[in-house]
Amino acid sequence: MNLLSVSNLYVNFHTKERELAALIDVSFTLNRGERIAIVGESGAGKSVLGFSIVNLIGKPGYIESGSIKLENKELTKMSLRQLQEVRGKRIAMIFQDPMMTLNPVLTIGDQLVETIRSHTKISYKDARNIAIEKLHHVQIASPEKRFNQYPHELSGGMRQRVIIASVLLLNPDIIIADEPTTALDVTIQAEILQLLLTICRDNGVALVLISHDLGVVSKVAERTLVMYAGHVVEEGPTLEIINDPQHPYTQGLLNALPQMTLPGQRLNQIQGSMPSLAERPSGCAFHPRCPYATQKCRQEQPNFIYSGVSSVACFLVEDMLNEFAEQDQETH
Amino acid sequence: MATPLIQISGLEKAFTTNESWLSQWRFHRGKLRRHKDSIHALNGVNLTINQGETVCVVGETGCGKSTLARVIMGLTTPSAGEIHYLDQRIDHLNNRQRMFFRRRMQMVFQNPYASLNPRMTVYQTLSEPISFHNPQLSQSQVDEQIDELLESVGISASSSDRYPHEFSGGQRQRISLARALSVEPDFIVADEPLSALDVSVQAQVLNLMMDKQEERNLSYLFITHDLAVVEHFATRVAVMYLGRICELAPTKTLFSAPKHPYTRALLSAIPRLDSNTAQPIRLIGEVPTPVEKPIGCVFQARCPYANQRCYEHSPAMTLQRDGSSVACHAIEEGRL
After folding, report:
1. Which residue blocks in chain B are alpha helix, DSSP H?
2. pLDDT tens for residues A31-48?
3. B159: in domain
4. Cβ B232–A158 below 8 Å, yes or no?
């Protein structure tokens, strides 16, 4: 059985004029110990998806329909009390900015101990020992000293390590990391990614990595979901998606990277920019920017189909597959 | 050889952290003494930029790359050192004297959401520099120039009476570039112009910058931490660490044969798309803050090759056989 399965999830944002759809028919599954990535540009809905998994969508957003199942428990129908058992203990989150996550007026140690003691009944001393062990686990030097320091005394990379330690305190099954390295420098980023990877591997924790950086994703995730304007447009093994992207958007995204063209040459840009929630075009949301768009793309929403490499929502790929199937029939 | 467009020598900049007079007093060995704490953002930077060239400055947060940009533009005054534009010294000028150079040098900032005035339409934003620097132009000539300028950065002239919030991030950055180009400069300093933009939009802005360079023979000082962009765009790359340039090399040389231990670590840390799973070189610790003026090599604390000499003497830039310059004792001594 899948550890986590999200099916046909619709998330809306309520505004005075109308309901804006942030997620449209999003489905995916996550197995125990699996690492997946959600990739997309800003406004694609990747963070909304991460937040809605633990039902953290704040007003005016709300889950319109669909189901999110952790093993066999439905998360969308849980009461706050039940959710608190899930949040942190089963599914933990790491956010982009560690300074925003840590409380600036409490010491690192107090925050870690509080986390443990709010979920399990143990003494302060035992909790302290666990906290120090976890700090040691995330390769923080002299954890006893750090335990009594405040967040502002630590550097950015160190803070993100503390966050990872705090996430590990309750041994969750799933870690959702929302752009965990975006605020960090490259050399520190490499270390934090390595740390996340080893921790997930060693403890069999499943990871949902939300990122806009395909380079980061390729180093960590086994499977990747590409999102565009609230839809999942492509899903498949990370290596396949990077080496053989099927959806025109994924192709464009990869081709736009500077390393894809020779130095000094013009880059392959995608025209235009992602539509906002309020001005989502009809049919396939990508059609105004798509070089292959046809009349059908402008009117109808493509279905998700398996192309042999990855699952894609694109009429172009669908037509191609149908053509192959017809040719196959003719030859038989 | 022609005179370089911009020549920077021995540039230093220290920021005082206890600005107020009262906080500068402290007890030291039983006596009250006045002491200024300062952060040394730049510690002797030497750099030349030639006509039509793109020099990229890379480095981690706090290494002084933005300070370098601001000092060159005259937005802050240097503590020591000289900046020459062609053969004129420009670092000590007052605002009036600097006006001529402001036309020749322009800047594009990181965040187009903050660098455009939200209460000015695109027309107002662009007409101000044009009519200020060209008072002889008539209104219709100014209008004409603005239309031309907007079209040239890929924004329709009809949207000139719109406000910045009506544009997307990429469009705003193109408007900032149009504003910089409006006075026809020959040198543009761009401080992380792409980092607030999405990948697909980054490509649009970068393409535009390359087109403009070709059209107008512009020189760029391009500050970034994205090494993929650097590899694509730069003629030469300067790697900065704690306020000093530790390696300066033609782009190809730098990426194929990085020399300085810091450059090596930096390049190995980029997450690349190819399935090459070489382990990044681990650096111990993090970038220290330059509160005290560093003695010896700036990189000594994190360098795996540091020896006694590195702790005591600061290495000078030495020219290597392949055209790159490196400041490192280990390379000089042949230990690396």
Report:
1. 65-72, 95-104, 112-115, 122-133, 139-152, 169-181, 199-216, 227-233, 251-256, 261-268, 308-312, 329-332
2. 999 999 999 888 888 889
3. no
4. no
ipTM, 2 dp: 0.78
> Amino acid identity of B14?
A
Chain A CB within 8 Å of residue B266 CB? yes
Q: Closest chain A residue to B167 measured between Cα atoms? A: A273
What is the reported pLDDT for B38?
A: 84
Please answer yes or no on whether A215 and B286 come within 8 Å at the CB atom: no
Domain-located, residue B173: no
| Residue B307: inside a domain | yes
Report field, pTM of the whole predicted structure over 0.80: yes
Residue of chain B whose Cα is closest to the Cα of A214: B273
Contact A6, A53 (CB under 8 A): yes
SS3 of residue A170 by DSSP: coil
B75: burial class by Cβ within 10 Å (0-12, 13-18, 19+)? exposed
Q: Is residue B189 part of a domain?
A: no
Q: Is the peptide bond before A60 cis (omega within 30 degrees of 0)?
A: yes
Query: How many contacts does A have with B, using Cβ atoms within 8 A?
Result: 112
Which residues, at least 6 apart from B270, have a Cβ–Cβ distance to it below 8 Å?
A186, A215, B227, B228
Residue B332 burial (CB < 10 Å; 0-12/13-18/19+)? middle
**Nearest residue to A234 via CA among A294, A307, A178, A177:** A307
Closest CA to A232 of A322, A310, A321, A317: A310
pLDDT single digits (tens) B44-75: 899 999 999 999 999 888 888 899 999 999 99
Helical H runs in chain A? 46-53, 80-86, 98-101, 108-119, 124-137, 143-147, 156-168, 186-203, 214-220, 238-243, 248-255, 295-299, 315-331
Domain coverage including residue B314: 239-247+255-336
Residue A256 CB burial class (10 angstroms; 0-12, 13-18, ≥19)? buried
Q: Name which of A219, A255, A259 to mutate to probe chain B: the one with the most chain B Cβ atoms within 10 A of its Cβ.
A: A259
Q: For B104-159, what is each residue's pLDDT tens digit?
A: 999 999 888 889 999 999 999 999 999 988 889 999 999 999 999 998 888 888 88
Tally the domains of chain B. 1
Rounded-to-integer distance, Cα A78 and Cα A187, Å: 41
Q: Name the DSSP class of B77.
A: -
